[in-house]
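Reminder to self: tokens first, then the designed residues, so the page reads top to bottom the way the pipeline ran.
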């Protein structure tokens, strides 16, 4: 007879492992199946985010920003350190150590929660059975009262510029480059294109980013996107909008990329090309015949607002289902499902999921953009407070960007907050909490913010929405 569990989770990324841990906290018998394999062949929990995405990219963003600031900013503070040099091997070793620490941490957490870890492939069969294929090819069947599918996503490939793992690469390979490419091409000026483009630009690459759309950062507030484009151009990122890529070919150790724009046919020659045009849900080998789990037209597993697939006892969470492909969104879905399975109340508030782009300046937002508020026909007011008027930002030599608050001018409810500037990814948490509690602008105005902090810019933006700012001229 097959071994049985209350819950079997397939996928141990940021959606799957929290589901497993919370289910175990709810005193359920839990197993988690994960097939992640690193470039060196080692196995690790944590999925894309910990092994190839969020964590390694942030480690490289941190190191490269320090390198850049040491070169361009230390002298301003009166600090002389002689010639700054780059030891990429050490930087990459640190990145790998950070990743290993995090993935070992997940393994430890699963173990101490009493979750049975199974490293290998999982395939759902009818009757909530899971076929597990171990690394050595042996198969075993398990049965679960509940199954949580958390198989994540994979990078989209461009048919005319397929990945070759050496010259034309995905984001995972691009965080692990062993040498700084002299010329780096990036297809897609989305989150990955901007973050990884920034890393290699700071480390010395000449970076050209080709973006199909005419609009830069189309998903962001337009005023914020304009400021971001201005800042990135100042940093030397060569962002070419409205660029329709025809294809790429590799010859003599270089990649030629052909594209068309308003001026006609163009081409660039680069040493490496990163294709970052989005990710697709990953369900390869996940669903056996007759499970009843359905995919939508884009390949996402169909679920309702509580992540139920429609097959009793089968749930799906994270990148493999609708919604933004973000680790924190997947985590909350995983936790919600584990609580619902245990009969507790739980929900995910999809209206207040923060987005952060970890460039310098950082970019972060939550809720509606000004354009969305306008299109929805809501009467709105705004406060846009610049970091130039913030003491801490000036002391940090970071007087760039602003906090923008969009609020309903009748009810005073905060509709959206958009930040570009230092630590925007940390500052946005206050706005998320405020919106989670349905706060008004006045609530923010009456909240004491420590001085001197960057968060005072959020306070002042709320005041500015009612023309009551103290630290800037109210217009
Ligand atoms: P994944 O993390 O993809 O995990 C799925 C796991 O399931 C994998 O380990 C996979 O091997 C395993 N699996 C799949 N199928 C099977 C199967 N049949 N059997 C067994 N195991 C299986 N998001 C953020 O919020 N912040 C960031 O800063 C951020 N940075 C990113 C940077 C990069 C370069 C990339 C690529 C992504 C980034 N993301 C970021 C997105 C984030 O990584 C994803 O949203 C997140 O990993 C999704 O979690 P998940 O658990 O749904 O899937
Ligand atoms: P993305 O959707 O953010 O950006 C892709 C960009 O590529 C878009 O601007 C799109 O217009 C452009 N594009 C698409 N096809 C193109 C083509 N043929 N030629 C030129 N441009 C083209 O996707 P991404 O940057 O690949 O990131 C994938 C996912 O990973 C995102 O959903 C994101 O949420 C997640 N991620 C998040 C973070 C973060 O939270 N900081 C960081 C990295 C990745």
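Designed residues (475 positions):
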């Amino acid at each position: 007879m097959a071994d049985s569990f209350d819950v079997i989770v397939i996928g141990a990324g940021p959606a799957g492992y929290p589901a497993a841990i919370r289910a175990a906290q709810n005193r359920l018998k839990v197993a988690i199946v994960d097939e992640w394999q690193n470039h060196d062949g080692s196995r690790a929990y944590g999925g894309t985010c910990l092994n190839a995405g969020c964590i390694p990219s942030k480690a490289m963003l941190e190191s490269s920003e320090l390198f850049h600031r040491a070169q361009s900013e230390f002298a301003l503070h009166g600090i002389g350190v002689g010639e700054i040099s780059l030891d990429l091997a050490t930087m990459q070793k640190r990145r790998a150590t950070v990743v290993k620490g995090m993935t070992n941490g997940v393994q430890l957490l699963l173990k101490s929660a009493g979750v049975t870890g199974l490293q290998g492939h999982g395939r759902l069969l009818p009757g909530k059975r899971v076929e597990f294929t171990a690394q050595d090819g042996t198969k075993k069947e398990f049965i679960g009262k509940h199954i949580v599918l958390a198989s994540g996503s994979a990078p989209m490939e461009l048919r005319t510029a397929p990945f070759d793992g050496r010259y034309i690469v995905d984001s995972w390979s691009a965080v692990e480059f062993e040498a700084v490419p002299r010329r780096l091409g990036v297809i897609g000026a989305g989150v990955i294109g901007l973050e990884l483009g920034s890393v290699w630009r700071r480390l010395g690459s000449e970076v050209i980013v080709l973006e199909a759309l005419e609009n830069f950062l189309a998903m962001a507030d337009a005023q914020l996107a304009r400021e971001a484009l201005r800042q990135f151009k100042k940093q030397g990122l060569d962002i070419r909008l409205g660029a329709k890529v025809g294809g790429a070919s590799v010859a003599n150790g270089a990649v030629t990329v052909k594209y068309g724009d308003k001026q006609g046919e163009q081409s660039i020659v680069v040493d490496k090309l990163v294709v970052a045009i989005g990710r697709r849900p990953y369900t390869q080998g996940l669903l056996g015949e007759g499970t009843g789990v359905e995919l939508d037209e884009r390949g996402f597993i169909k679920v309702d607002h509580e992540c139920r697939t429609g097959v009793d006892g089968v749930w799906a969470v994270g990148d493999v289902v609708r919604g933004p492909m973000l680790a924190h969104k997947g985590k909350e879905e995983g936790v919600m499902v584990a609580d619902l399975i245990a009969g507790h109340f739980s929900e995910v508030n999809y209206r207040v999921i923060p987005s952060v782009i970890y460039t310098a300046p950082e970019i972060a937002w939550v809720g509606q953009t000004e354009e969305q508020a306008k299109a929805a026909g809501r009467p709105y007011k705004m406060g846009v407070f610049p970091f130039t008027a913030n003491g801490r930002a000036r002391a940090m030599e970071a007087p760039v960007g602003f906090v923008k608050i969009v609020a309903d001018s009748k009810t005073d409810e905060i509709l959206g907050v958009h930040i570009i500037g230092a630590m925007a990814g940390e500052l946005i948490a206050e706005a998320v909490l405020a919106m989670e509690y349905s706060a008004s602008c006045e609530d923010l105005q009456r909240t004491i913010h420590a001085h001197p902090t960057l968060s005072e810019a959020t306070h002042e933006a709320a005041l500015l929405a009612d023309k009551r700012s103290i630290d800037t001229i109210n217009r």
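The first strand starts at residue 3 and ends at 10.
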